[in-house]
Design a protein that fits this description.
With 259 residues, the chain is an alpha/beta fold. It contains ten helices and seven strands. It has two domains: 153 residues, 3-Layer(aba) Sandwich (Rossmann fold); 93 residues, Orthogonal Bundle (ProC C-terminal domain-like fold), CATH 1.10.3730.10. Helix content is 49%, strand content 13%. The structure holds 1,4-dihydronicotinamide adenine dinucleotide and (2S)-3,4-dihydro-2H-pyrrole-2-carboxylic acid.
Length: 259
């Protein structure tokens, strides 16, 4: 996810000055220094925002390394975490172990951020200043839309819908491609049809004021082909049951990761 944000920021009209700490990534750009250990962070670099985009389980290790490298500079920064689950309190506590009193904001972006088409939920704890909230909003807005949430707990369902959501759409693309091939289309044709359809439908949802339900009904001729397919997908034990169940499972998992 950090790579998706990075790509989006570099492609934005006014890229921020970035220092990227990543054990593996090779990346470059005028506004970027890349370091593989926290000790290599340039001594004159005062971050406004420390974006944490590692797996939730290694947050403490990374905060500890950055805290030791930045020393007093850590106190002038805020943490923006994009990690699923990890609470503002747990991250502030981790920073405090290094003697730093750091405001924490949490965002849940998604991978379309890499092409400027992301959407992020953003929560700011009370300790964040107005300026820090604005910087974090602008960072995320540079790679897509931003939806502020009032309660930190809401980020779990945001994660389930828009954080994980691209994967559901990609799964639909896979299944449409496979079904097309099973009916005799070449892989190339099946792929073009599946992707082009999802792209076009996504653009209609974005561009047009109509509800998703009205757009669906406009495709559905009485007793036609769409009605035949929707009779399968909309059976009570099909999508109307499985989609909410999937969102429940992802939300529950985000809650479990909290701490
Ligand atoms: N993948 C997604 O679509 C989304 C992921 N997230 C969150 O983003 C976080 C990262 O997830 P992914 O990007 O999928 O994982 P990933 O494994 O692709 O990326 C993690 C990166 O952290 C680096 N890293 C790990 N330990 C390090 C250390 N000690 N020092 C320096 N760099 C270190 C790795 O080299 C890697 O580049 C997770 O917390 C996840 O919840 C949030 C929104 C969407
Ligand atoms: O699967 C995950 O845990 C992360 C959070 C949202 C998308 N990927």
């Amino acid at each position: 996810m950090g790579g998706a944000l990075f790509d989006g920021w570099l492609a934005s009209p006014t890229p921020p000055r970035l220092v990227v700490l990543d054990r593996h990534r090779t990346c470059s750009g005028d506004a970027v220094s890349v370091v593989r250990t926290a000790a290599e962070i340039p001594a004159d670099f005062q971050p406004d925002i420390i974006v944490l985009a590692v797996k939730p389980a290694v947050a403490e290790i990374v905060i500890d390394a950055i805290g030791k490298a930045l020393g007093a500079r850590m106190n002038n920064a805020a943490i923006l975490s994009v990690m699923a689950g990890r609470t503002c309190k747990s991250l502030a506590d981790a920073a405090r172990l290094n003697g730093a009193d750091v405001p924490v904001l949490r965002a849940m972006p998604n991978t379309p951020s890499a092409i400027g088409a992301g959407i992020s939920g953003l929560y700011a704890s009370d300790t964040a200043t107005a300026e820090q909230k604005t910087i974090c909003h602008d960072l995320l807005f540079a790679v897509g839309d931003v939806v502020p949430v009032e309660k930190e707990a809401d980020l779990s369902v945001v994660t389930a819908i828009s954080g994980s959501g691209p994967a559901y759409v990609f799964l639909l693309a896979e299944l449409l491609e496979e079904a097309g091939q099973q009916h005799g289309l070449s892989p190339t044709v099946a792929r073009r049809l599946a992707r082009g359809t999802i792209y076009g439908a996504g653009r209609m949802l974005d561009d047009m004021p109509d509800s998703a339900e009205d757009l669906r009904k406009a495709v559905t001729s009485p007793n036609g082909t769409t009605a035949a397919a929707l009779a399968v997908l909309m059976k009570s034990d099909a999508w109307p049951e499985t989609v909410p169940k999937a969102i429940d499972a992802a939300t529950k998992r985000a809650d479990e990761l909290a701490g």
